[in-house]
Fold each of these.
Amino acid sequence: MMKIRRRAVDPAVMISCCYFLLVVIIIGGADFCNGGVTSRFVRRLQESPDMPLDSDVFRVPPGYNAPQQVHITQGDHEGKAMIVSWVTMEEPGSSTVTFWTQTGKKKSANGRATSYHYYTYRSGYIHHCTLRRLEHSTKYYYEVGTGGNTTRQFWFKTPPEVGPDVPFTFGLIADLGQTHDSNDTLTHYENNPMGGQTVLFAGDLSYADRYPNHDNVRWDTWGRFVERSTAYQPWIWVTGNHEIDYAPEIGETEPFKPFTHRYHVPHKASNSTSPHWYSVKIASAYVIVLSSYSAYGKYTPQTQWLQKELSNVDRSETPWLIVLMHSPWYNSYDHHYMEGETMRVMYEPLLVQYRVDLVFAGHVHAYERSERVSNIAYRIVSGGCRPVEDDNAPVYITIGDGGNSEGLVTDMTEPQPEYSAYREASFGHATLSIKNRTHAFYNWHRNQDGYNVVADSVWFHNRIWLLND
Ligand SMILES: [Fe+2]
């Protein structure tokens, strides 16, 4: 039986495992605790429908042609630019953003508006404006709708200058949707005392495609729902399967049409030719976004880009190498089982070679954290095919538990595979708090508890700077 040596194990996990062993011995059982922890903590299983259209979280801001669905994301590779996006419904209005610091003069930047049709739906005017030459670690106030009919003001804080020991806290959310559970997840993230500064969002935003003809009104409601966070801190976007919106039966054959019109990302800054794969540097982290639903075979643009990208990462500048994707490679739930396998076969050797620290994915509507394992020795002629302990491998975390209308998945493969360290079918979110080049503290919070309750937490040691600790 393969023995996986555990590293950086949470004391709570060790206590739980020891307790389980004790119980097994007491009842005369003959097996060992051969996997990690499967939490049976499931307080609520029923699916939750989307919040009604007249919910207060979807309220249209007052005023003629008022900007709505405001969201920001990092606008360059280094964190000195911010893309501000919003929608006006009645008329194009102005694409100008005015921005200022508490002590500085007002500046303005001009953006552009776009729109699209989807079957019988016609979008509002979607504005994207990049604010450049910003100072690091600075609070900026900004106003959208400038020169138009109704203006609205927001603020954000730019990330600190990139450096190896710069602390930074990320929020981790995926598969959010727009149910009451989604609302709980977002509220818990907002109230999390860890204080997330940027959200790494691992795909599946609105779930509008679950409605007849992919009713894109639900893209608009989602944009208004999350504005209370997305207008104030950057969300780093990943495309999931619910962003594909491919519906040839109604003549919609352009994949990702609503997403790519509504959510701009700085892919050109990392020499990517597609908004579906790109990278950003944030504080001491290098974040690589991959697309589970774009071509990733050999010779494809995404593969060529990833190979070059990984070789360019300077871990003395950004020690923490984080990869985001939608479909997980290591998933011991029944749902979406092995959907990420073909991408794993293609990309896992690269991620191990370059000692990626952490891989976050969504898609499976539950939570799971892996041990550090790899499965790259497999050759079809030799047949060996099992994940093995690998200090150079990332930890894989599935965080597809945002709370959408498809509900939780609860069926798991049994027994728990040895590579699976912790799994639980509850909604929630996580935070990753990087302390310096060697240590990062990670927490997963389930929704049903108070804001301070942590269900799974672990210290991560950097794969370059503390590999053998
Ligand atoms: Fe998904």
Amino acid sequence: MSPSTEAAPRCPFGHGAEAPAGHHGYQPFQMKDPFPAYAELRAEQPVMFDERIGYYVVTRYDDIKAVFDDWETFSSENAQAPVRERGPAARKIMEEGGFTAYSGLSARRPPEHTRIRSVVQKAFTPRRFKVLEPFIRQNVVDQLERMLANPERRGDIFRDLAYDVPTVTILTLIGADVAEVDKFKRWSDSRAAMTWGDLSDEEQIPHAHNLVEYWQECQRLVRVAHEEGGDNLTADLVKAQQDGAEISDHEIASVLYSMLFAGHETTTTLISNAVRVLLAHPEQWQQLVEDPKKIPAAIDEVLRYSGSIVGWRRKALKDAEVGGVKIPEGAGLLLLMGSANRDETRFTGGEEFDISRPNAREHLSFGYGIHYCLGNMLAKLQAKIALEEIVRLAPNLKLDNPEAIEFRENLSFRVPESVPVAWEA
Ligand code: HEM
């Protein structure tokens, strides 16, 4: 691979002094406010080799969409690869623990991807999760009422609502134990940190233990479905296999390994971001209080403006070109959808949050093409229910000290640590 070493032009946005030359203020793992750096990159160096992570960083909408669309040139096989190599201690723990998990779908290539996705898609229909709607709504109401009962009139939307609701939903869908929310959250945090984080060898050790436990649980769920059946997605996949669908037990466990992470982590973030961003724009929040029918459009605008995943990876399978820059065979690309979603060439006034934006749905937060997020409807359904109940039960919610909100360090997932709120009597 031959990264460009050309000095970057002087930066008109004023980042040049503190940022390493050529990076335009972009710090791959910093998530607090990456948007000024994204804007600089789009303007100055829309395809930039970043030697700190070893990836070509792509920031313009059209380039990113074209790469997603061309799966024959740009494969997703590196989408789940650890950004930082696993250290010897973590590798040993995982080997000895029988950790053989592989991506359920997102890092698989056709024809294997096509085969597994078609089996999963038949089981993961809106019918399977639509029946859960009253149950999801009740869970939202219970969590909210518990938060609103706090006599200090303060809460944290992340911890008090967004953490639990999507996790209970996906555990129910898959047939896992809903009393184990904290355990699944801990495992998921480990997965996010081990794959997309910047951990030292030492820091990886507890996470390696967690991944072993997590994978063992996925395999156990498949065994239980074989032995006992059940009315859940795991049992449906096992039944499909028994009826002749081409999917192995290891592949089913891998799908669970994916969904028990993707199925809540990103929705927790979506609900948190929806409340955080809408309350930061009180006049738009008020519009939803007065007319909740505007909520679905507002959710798409939240996904555009503040997506749960701001970067996703691809690998060039042959020599290629992106935005006029040569990409050598074997190179990794980091597609910054968080930047594409604010690209002025697609979204007029892209840096502004506007729930009446006509084309918000063109955001790339769910990816694009053959790997387009399988859970997008479930994620949006849950965010819609959460917002409907919050504007109904807590219309006068306010953000409490929003400047203090921190975001976890990560290459791809932009997750607020908390969304503190307060309300009047
Ligand atoms: C706000 C919530 C969510 C966001 C932002 C999100 C985002 C994404 C992204 C960026 C991809 C990769 C797309 C690509 O490579 O082109 C993806 C794939 C996927 N997502 Fe989601 N996701 C969300 C919720 C969910 C939920 C709730 C589920 C499951 C219940 C889910 C399951 C999956 C699966 C299985 C894939 C792999 C699809 C494939 O490779 O064919 N996601 N998602």
